């Protein structure tokens, strides 16, 4: 049954992508982040992402909808990063594995650029945020309820065959989406809706803790501190955070506390020392190879050449050392520049959005994207998620927000409901639809 339902939804997305490619890009984002086809029996073997992506690219050049091909510092930096990936590819140490990963990364980055072209209204931005929230929130809320029900005795894992299938990766995804949920909550008006979103945020935090990820714990702590700094009532916010933390931590079993305790004694932990060994390997490789080693370097043959301990083979377990080892110092500089620009744009929105009521939502968006980027910067220091979609989607959010603000779109845009309904259903519920302020 789930296969049939998903096929119907994907079929609708496919057809809409030709006529209204902005819907196609939202569907592609949903499929790319959530990977709903991995939850089915038969559909998971179909190239659903390629189908939606291809239809969206066709619609990009045939649609009559508005498109914005203007460049900005974030899009230019991303293009330069893609060009650098292409330049370094011929120098890859292991060509076959590197080429397969290269194709995957370039597809993601291309669709990120297409997203910047197709989305432009406030409704588009809000829907894009919702898609990212729902895509990760589905697993995070479910994982949080599982953690509470089992007292944290079992680890929470992500969907198979995705960037976030591991417990650590799933934890960071949940952590990064919590601020986006808070942004969504700030735009809601109904008390029950705000309450539901509060529950979801608590379950996302519980899911991150239930993954037994030490990096996620550090990321939550860093994000919590930033959110506390940004809060208007620091006393109430601080007490609320402490109470929530104490309640959630009380569920965690003894083995969880033992694992978290190894943060202080990392020298005695084999996993932690293995990561440090991989970081030294990446550093040594980048110093010896200007173009890096390619997308596929975390193997015994390459560790034998550059690692302090050749027998201890690990993945990068760090967005910084992953980029350094695979793309060299130039790749790392471009990567850091991209997210540095995104941080600056988010700050711009946070400050400028406060100037008038119509743009307050942009201030909220900028503030919460900054909090998410803090989580990515801290948690990503211990995970190999340099190419995952969600951080780049946050870059898209602030780029779209700055464009909307620059053209004073609130003076010309008509208020539209966020939820997309079929025409026949939209007419029936037209009076009940709640327009955006």
Automatic annotation (TrEMBL):
TM annotation in the entry: 43-63, 75-95, 101-120, 127-148, 168-184, 196-229, 235-254, 290-308, 328-349, 361-384
Alphabetically ordered keywords of this record: Ligase, Membrane, Transmembrane, Transmembrane helix
Membrane topology qualifier: Multi-pass membrane protein
Molecular function GO terms recorded: ligase activity
Gene Ontology CC annotations of this record: membrane
Domain of life: Bacteria
Protein name: Putative O-glycosylation ligase, exosortase A system-associated
Protein's organism: Roseateles puraquae
Upper taxonomic lineage: Bacteria, Pseudomonadati, Pseudomonadota, Betaproteobacteria, Burkholderiales
């Amino acid at each position: 049954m789930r296969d049939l339902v998903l096929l119907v939804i994907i079929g609708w997305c496919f057809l809409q992508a030709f006529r209204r490619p902005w819907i196609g890009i939202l569907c592609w984002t949903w499929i790319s982040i959530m990977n709903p086809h991995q939850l089915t029996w038969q559909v998971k073997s179909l190239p659903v992402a390629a189908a939606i992506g291809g239809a969206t690219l066709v619609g990009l050049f045939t649609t009559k909808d508005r498109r914005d091909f203007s460049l900005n510092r974030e899009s230019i930096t991303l293009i330069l990063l893609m060009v650098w990936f292409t330049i370094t590819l011929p120098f890859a140490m292991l060509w076959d594995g590197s080429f397969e990963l290269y194709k995957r990364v370039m597809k993601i980055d291309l669709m990120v650029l297409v997203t910047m072209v197709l989305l432009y209204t406030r409704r588009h931005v809000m829907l894009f945020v919702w898609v990212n929230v729902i895509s990760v929130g589905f697993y995070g809320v479910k994982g949080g309820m599982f953690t509470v029900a089992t007292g944290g005795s079992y680890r929470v894992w992500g969907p198979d065959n995705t960037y976030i299938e591991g417990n650590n990766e799933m934890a960071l995804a949940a952590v990064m989406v919590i601020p986006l949920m808070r942004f969504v909550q700030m735009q809601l008006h109904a008390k029950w809706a705000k309450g539901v979103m509060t529950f979801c945020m608590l379950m996302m935090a519980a899911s991150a803790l239930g993954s037994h990820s030490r990096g996620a714990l550090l990321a939550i702590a860093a994000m919590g501190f930033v959110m506390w700094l940004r809060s208007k009532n620091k006393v109430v916010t601080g007490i609320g955070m402490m109470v929530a933390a104490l309640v959630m931590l009380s569920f965690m079993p003894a083995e969880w506390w033992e694992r978290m305790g190894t943060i202080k004694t990392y020298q005695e932990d084999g996993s932690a020392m293995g990561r440090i060994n991989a970081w030294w390997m990446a550093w040594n490789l980048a110093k010896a190879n200007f173009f890096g080693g390619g997308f596929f370097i975390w193997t015994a043959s390459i560790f034998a050449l550059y690692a302090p301990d050749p027998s201890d083979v690990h993945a990068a377990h760090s967005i910084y050392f992953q980029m350094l080892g695979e793309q060299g110092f130039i790749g790392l500089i471009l990567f850091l520049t991209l997210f540095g620009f995104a941080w600056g744009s988010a700050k711009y929105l946070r400050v400028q959005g406060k100037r008038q009521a119509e743009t307050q939502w942009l201030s909220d968006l900028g503030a919460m994207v900054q909090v998410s980027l803090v989580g990515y910067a801290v948690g990503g220091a211990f995970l190999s998620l340099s190419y995952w979609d969600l951080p780049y989607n946050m870059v898209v959010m602030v780029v779209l927000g700055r464009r909307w603000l620059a053209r004073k779109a609130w003076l010309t845009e008509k208020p539209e409901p966020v939820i997309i309904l079929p025409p026949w259903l939209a007419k029936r519920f037209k009076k009940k639809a709640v327009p955006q302020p």
